[in-house]
């Protein structure tokens, strides 16, 4: 089976204003999955795409840059996507409101209608990162009724939750009988 997975990284909105990097971890997750390595961080200006064989399935994962100026390009990657990984920095509470606004826009996109979404609550290795339940409540997961949506706690740094992401993506891509 071949599956398409979109990793939507989010927000660098204030990066260029305050010269502070506000970071999420989409690319780190992609390459932790693909290469089993923690990569040196470089902001994604276009996209990265990698394939990964997992449990007799081939997942093709598209990682798009999360900078504010790049977000209008996300929808070019949506056709054919079967699962969205929406990566959130669970440690940076200041950015959650904007992350939620962007998340709501993703859910409203007609091309992604009904496509399952897994919210990756990333950076769980850092003290004070919001838990699965806290992120779920903030993103209103219980009120999302038009598709499958769940939260997985992840860390690209300590390789937490990433196998579960692949397992769940494959399960969600299986044709319904
Ligand atoms: N502590 C911690 N830091 C992480 C984790 N994942 C990524 N980072 C760090 O977060 C920063 C951004 O990571 P990236 O993977 O480049 O984030 P991104 O979402 O792809 O960013 P853009 O491409 O600019 O949208 C880097 O400094 C990473 O080392 C994690 O699980 N834990
Ligand atoms: Mg990136």
Brief overview:
It holds the Pfam family Arf. Keywords: GTP-binding, Nucleotide-binding. With 177 residues, the chain is an alpha/beta fold.
Walk me through what this model shows.
The longest helix has 13 residues, at 96-108. The chain is of the alpha/beta class and 177 residues long. The chain has one domain: Rossmann fold (3-Layer(aba) Sandwich), CATH 3.40.50. Strand 2 and strand 3 (57-64) form a beta hairpin. 26% of the residues lie in helices and 23% in strands. A six-stranded mixed beta sheet has the order 2-3-1-4-5-6, sandwiched between helices. The structure holds guanosine-5'-triphosphate and magnesium ion.
Helix and strand arrangement:
Elements: E1 2-8, H1 15-18, H2 26-35, E2 47-54, E3 57-64, E4 83-89, H3 96-108, E5 117-122, H4 132-138, E6 149-153, H5 162-173
Parallel strand pairs: 1-3, 1-4, 4-5, 5-6
Antiparallel strand pairs: 2-3
Guanosine-5'-triphosphate binds at residues 9, 12, 23-28, 41, 43-44, 65-67, 87, 122-123, 125-126, 155-157.
Family: Belongs to the small GTPase superfamily. Arf family.
Keywords: GTP-binding, Nucleotide-binding
Pfam families: Arf
């Amino acid at each position: 089976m071949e599956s398409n997975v979109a990793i939507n990284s989010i927000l660098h909105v204030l990066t260029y204003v305050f010269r502070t990097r506000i970071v999420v971890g989409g690319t780190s997750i992609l390459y932790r999955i693909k290469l089993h390595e923690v990569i040196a961080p470089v902001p994604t200006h276009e996209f990265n795409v990698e394939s990964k064989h997992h449990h007799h399935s081939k997942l093709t994962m598209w990682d798009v840059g999360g900078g504010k100026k790049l977000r209008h390009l996300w929808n070019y990657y949506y056709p054919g996507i079967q699962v969205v990984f929406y990566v959130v920095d669970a440690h940076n509470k200041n950015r959650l409101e904007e992350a939620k606004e962007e998340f709501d826009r993703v859910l409203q996109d007609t091309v992604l209608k009904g496509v399952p979404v897994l919210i990756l609550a990333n950076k769980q290795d850092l003290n004070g990162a919001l838990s699965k339940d806290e992120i779920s409540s903030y993103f209103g997961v219980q009120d999302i009724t038009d598709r499958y949506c769940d939260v997985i706690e992840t860390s690209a740094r300590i390789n937490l939750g990433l196998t579960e992401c692949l397992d769940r993506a494959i399960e969600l891509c299986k044709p319904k009988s």
